Each structure stands twice: as structure tokens, then as C-alpha cells.
């Protein structure tokens, strides 16, 4: 891991993300790119009407001052390099431009609360970054000191479409030197599988993945509860889930399960694009 991007909006949550990024950067000798997306419309930048150019310059200088003050933190001491980047438009596809230009490995994103409020992902900046990002996005909701990933849980439906996300998650866990735990959640009702059927489904997936990595079968009343309860049971540091990118987290497993996991989890969640 060489480069970590942290979107910064000067909120308490973005500072939580910055602290986690600092911990990871120190552990892996990585640099941090602090990305602030300044919400300027076209008129502010180019139009001769409305806002004058000097007003645009003023707003840019103000943003530069704010991000400089925001990055003046003791916990950033010892980080290889911290570089502020200001983008003129709040267009979340631009995150990938920064990722590609700097060869970033990870985005660490702050998000609101840990009580399942829908604004955490639905319509939020965090969801928009997740939808556009080609690299893993680690979502942080609470302050965490000396963040380190020793135990990594990856949950998926064990369908062929998740093979790419699985390989990305496994590779990422190896970069973090973390123990990698895969879990299949077996639920009652129409989705219930016998042990034999569940093992067959998992075996087919792992054969296509080209590995015989052990998979845990965990029974619970819902997929969301199963993922969270299993992760808490083994004291996981991170929960990994696949996402369809622009289709959002709502296509993970079925319905809004992915969003529910991200919203309700007290454990940081990291997404991998399918």
C-alpha cells in the first residue's frame, strides 16, 4: 500500500477517516492525498455574469487555507507525505482521476454516525464515492486510535459475479497481513440451504476462484444480522462486501442488505467493486 486518498469536507467524520489513514500510512510507509471537492458551478469559474473571477479565486484561496489548517494535526507527524488536492467541481467521478494519476490503493471515507441513519449512505457523499471508485473504499464512522487490521471478514452470496471482488478482498487482506475469514450466511425461509447444498454452492464458487480457502457457514435470521454477528463473534476489524459500483450497494446480495450492513455496522466496512 503506497497511496491513500482521504476525501475531506472538514467535518468530524472526515477527521476520523484522516486519523485511520494516518495509522495505515505509518504502518505501510504510504502517502496520504487529502482531497477536497470544492462545490463551484460553471458560472463561478467561467461565466462573465454572476460571480466574478476574483470571487472564484477568493473561494479557492479560502479552501486552501482551510485544508492547510485541517491538516495541521499532531497525528499526521511521521506520515511519509501528506498532499492536499482541491478539485473545483463536486463530481465524484473525478475521484477515479485522482486514483489513476497517483496510483492510489485505497480511499478512506468518513461517514455519519453508527445508528443506522439512512443518510449514512443513501444520497450521501460516501455512497457516491463508493459507486464511482475503482479501488477499495474503507468507510469509517467513529474515532479509532491506532487502527490496525488483524482480522478481515469477507461476506458475499457466493455467486460467480462476486469472484472479482473476492480476489480483490483477499489480495487486500494479504497487503494488510490480516487473517482472512470468508462467511456464507444461511437464513430461514425460501433462502435456506441444507448443509449439503450450502457446501456445494461454496465448493463451486471456490473451484472457480482457484482456491480451497475455508468458508464459514453461519446461521442467522437475516443476512445482515448474520454478517454483523459473525464479525463481532470473531472480533473482526473490518467487514468486506462487494458492490456493483454505479448500481450502488443496493445490489449486494438482494434488496438493501449491503446498505444495511454499512449503516448498522459498528465495525468499519470496506467495499470492493464487482
TrEMBL record:
State the family named in the UniProt similarity comment for this chain: Belongs to the universal stress protein A family.
Matches recorded under PANTHER family: STRESS RESPONSE PROTEIN NHAX, UNIVERSAL STRESS PROTEIN UP12
Where the record annotates domain UspA, the positions are 1-141, 153-272
UniProt protein name: Universal stress protein
Pfam assignment, any one: Usp
Source organism's superkingdom?
Bacteria
Native source species: Lentiprolixibacter aurantiacus
